[in-house]
């Protein structure tokens, strides 16, 4: 993807009206199209840059339980003062030894960074009106070159948009589409997980841990809700009045639909097995943005295509983008040609099919 298109995509993402967590996770996933990097993170902080939560662009797996504590132990008062003093005169930090001379001997590096091949760092604070909001972290393996000054400048031009996303109020209702990801879990009658598919394990991880924080009560609430589905299913089969055993869970990764089904009947109720399906859905607006990343459209054509996907009349598109109606029609004709479609009703299904 050309740099101009990558920058336009990241800016549109930050102004999309999606929830903060969805935008930040997707930003971390998409920023490598502009700046070569891997396993990127965002750390929300307080005014003194002490970490409050972490959002990652990659699956942390079994380390979700220990990373927040390791990170919290590393960020001492002395190290935070060094960070604050550095960022008073620099837009970013690309040498972790500025923060701690022995960083590459620390537990944070050897237990976390090294595990995920995060050697070279590009740490950039995000602030609004002088108030720190967090720190963007881009990373590269040891085998690659450190981040360059021009890459710092590229990321710096996007920081104000990230700040906008962190402070924006998400739209209350976002239509969702299928991500194509489903999983199956086996639970006992008490709601305890007996077995699960690999995809179910990944989806549960996404559902339970949208942020890495020391506090884990949100995780417990979800597990308690799944146990409640098992109880509801049992009540249905006892002939009692009960709600259907399904639950919709929303978080940074979209929408997760859980449905419980009976697998077998056993004389001992506690031994009965229950199948629980997980279906993942993501906001349609996000699917459209993802699809347009792969399209050979100019930034303006992508803007027009997004407006068409939202159902806007051509006149409204012109007023919104400050272009003439004839210019809108010209862009629409080129979009239809590139996507091999003939009418606007075909656009959204085409984009959703590309994103799934």
From TrEMBL:
Against InterPro entries, the record matches this protein to:
GAF, GAF-like_dom_sf, Sig_transdc_resp-reg_C-effctor, Tscrpt_reg_LuxR_C, WH-like_DNA-bd_sf
What are the coiled-coil residue ranges?
none
Q: Which residues form the HTH luxR-type domain?
A: 290-355
- Keywords associated with the record: DNA-binding, Transcription, Transcription regulation
**Pfam families, A to Z:** GAF, GerE
Concerning PANTHER family, the annotation shows: DNA-BINDING TRANSCRIPTIONAL ACTIVATOR DEVR_DOSR
Q: What is this protein's record name?
A: LuxR C-terminal-related transcriptional regulator
From which source organism is this entry?
Methylomonas defluvii
């Amino acid at each position: 993807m050309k740099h101009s298109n990558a920058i336009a995509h990241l800016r549109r993402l930050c102004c999309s009206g999606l929830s903060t967590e969805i935008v930040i996770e997707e930003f971390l996933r998409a920023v490598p199209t502009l700046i070569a990097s891997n396993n990127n993170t965002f750390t929300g902080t307080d005014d003194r840059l002490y970490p409050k939560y972490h959002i990652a662009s990659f699956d942390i797996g079994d380390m979700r339980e220990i990373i927040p504590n390791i990170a919290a132990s590393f960020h001492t008062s002395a190290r935070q003062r060094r960070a604050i003093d550095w960022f008073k005169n620099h837009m970013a930090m690309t040498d972790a030894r500025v923060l701690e001379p022995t960083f590459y001997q620390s537990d944070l590096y050897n237990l976390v960074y090294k595990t995920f091949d995060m050697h070279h760092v590009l740490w950039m604070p995000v602030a609004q009106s002088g108030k720190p909001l967090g720190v963007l972290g881009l990373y590269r393996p040891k085998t690659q070159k450190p981040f360059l000054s021009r890459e710092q400048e590229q990321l710096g031009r996007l920081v104000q948009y990230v700040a906008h996303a962190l402070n924006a109020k998400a739209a209350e209702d976002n239509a969702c589409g299928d991500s194509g990801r489903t999983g199956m879990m086996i639970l006992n009658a008490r709601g305890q997980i007996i077995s699960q598919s690999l995809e179910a394990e990944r989806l549960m991880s996404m559902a339970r841990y949208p942020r890495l924080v020391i506090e884990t009560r949100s995780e417990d609430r979800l597990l308690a809700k799944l146990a409640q589905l098992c109880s509801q299913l049992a009540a249905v089969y006892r002939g009692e009045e009960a709600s259907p055993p399904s639950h919709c869970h929303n978080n940074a990764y979209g929408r997760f639909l859980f449905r419980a089904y009976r697998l077998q009947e056993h004389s001992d109720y506690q031994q009965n097995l229950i199948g629980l399906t997980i279906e993942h859905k993501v906001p349609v607006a996000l699917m459209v943005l993802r699809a347009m990343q792969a399209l050979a459209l100019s930034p303006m054509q992508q803007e027009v295509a997004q407006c068409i996907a939202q159902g806007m009349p051509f006149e409204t598109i012109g007023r919104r983008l400050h272009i003439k109606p004839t210019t809108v029609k010209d862009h629409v004709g080129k979009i239809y040609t590139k996507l091999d479609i003939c009418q606007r009703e075909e656009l959204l299904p085409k984009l959703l099919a590309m994103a799934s």
